[in-house]
Amino acid sequence: MFSRIREDIQSIFDRDPAARNWFEVLTNYPGMHAIWVHRLSNKLWRHNWKLLARLLSTFSRWLTGVEIHPGATLGRRFFIDHGMGVVIGETAEIGDDVTIYHGVTLGGTSWKEGKRHPTLEDNAVIGAGAQILGPITIGKGGKVGSNSVVVKDVPANATAVGIPGKIVNPNGKKGNGARDAVAQKYGFDAYAVSEDNPDPVAKAIGRLLDHIHLMDGKVTDLCKEVNHLGGNVCDKELPELRVGEFVEDEKKAAERRKQSVEAFDPTI
Predict the structure, then answer these.
(1) Could you say which of 111, 128, 132, 143 has the lowest number of CB atoms within 10 Å?
(2) Are residues 187 and 169 in the same domain?
(3) pLDDT digits over 31-53, tens only?
């Protein structure tokens, strides 16, 4: 049990830069609390203590704002970020390392018994406010943009956005390799943004990344030519830009996390 708890907490550190220490995660992440309560209610459900399981899940909803039916199947390292307003139906199946954000619904479209809720395979990411409806499958590594309504299968590594959800990035293919490289370098990853997405902010950021990439290339070429003519410029590499520099120093943050872990468990 404790190994699973440690695994859950570490998965939050891996996916949420706002997580500072173990105590903060233990006390301030309702999505994780809802998952822990669900593990108990799911065991009760499978042992036919269905009323008690439903009562426990209802208490969890009241406590965390996350509604998970005790019959749902959740994988390892499942992360519900923020949590409020998440609804996961009875026959929903969620794989390992899946991430969903607040306001997501994994709902049904039929009153008939049987499989009627979605399946999210390993490493799927579902944006805030998205509605995934019916017995459909979001393939491994599949992504769904915020506020999308998806009623059809999403292939592995593909991205779906819009109402109704449409595949804009089949098979995870990238439309602009240079932009993707710069985005990764500077810590920006619009996972559900495509070339034809109408979001003006996303388009502006994309164009800024294109501009940065172009300027980097021109400065590098200029330095080479000046040095070739006998000059001595650009002998030092430009400092790497990291998102952590604008928030807090990563090494200090890591040291604080280490101290908090040791305080939580002195045997570590």
Answers:
(1) 111
(2) no
(3) 889 999 999 999 999 999 999 99
Long-range own/partner contacts, residues 169-175 (CB < 8 A, 24 or more apart) = 169/143, 169/194, 172/141
Instruction: Verify that 165 and 189 share a domain, yes or no.
Output: no
Residue-by-residue DSSP string for 12-35: HHHH-TT---HHHHHHH-HHHHHH
Q: 58 is in which domain, residue-wise? A: 2-173
Q: What residues form DSSP beta bridges with 149?
A: 131
Q: Are residues 132 and 12 in the same domain?
A: yes
Q: How far apart are CA 118 and CA 73, in angstroms?
A: 11
Q: Which of 122, 164, 161, 115 is nearest to 136 (CA)?
A: 115
How much is the pLDDT for 238? 63
Q: How far apart are CA 204 and CA 62, in angstroms?
A: 40
Whether residues 150 and 25 share a domain: the answer is yes
Helix axes 200-228, 177-185, angle to 10 degrees: 90
What is the model's pTM? 0.63
Claim to verify: residue 206 and residue 154 sit in the same structural domain = no
Domain total of the chain: 2
Residues 189, 173: contact at Cβ < 8 Å?
no
pLDDT at site 121: 92
Q: What is the pLDDT of residues 77-91, one digit of tens each?
A: 898 988 889 999 999
* Domain CATH for 154: 2.160.10.10
Examine the pLDDT at 260 and tell me if it is beyond 80: no
Kindly state whether residues 187 and 167 are assigned to the same domain: no
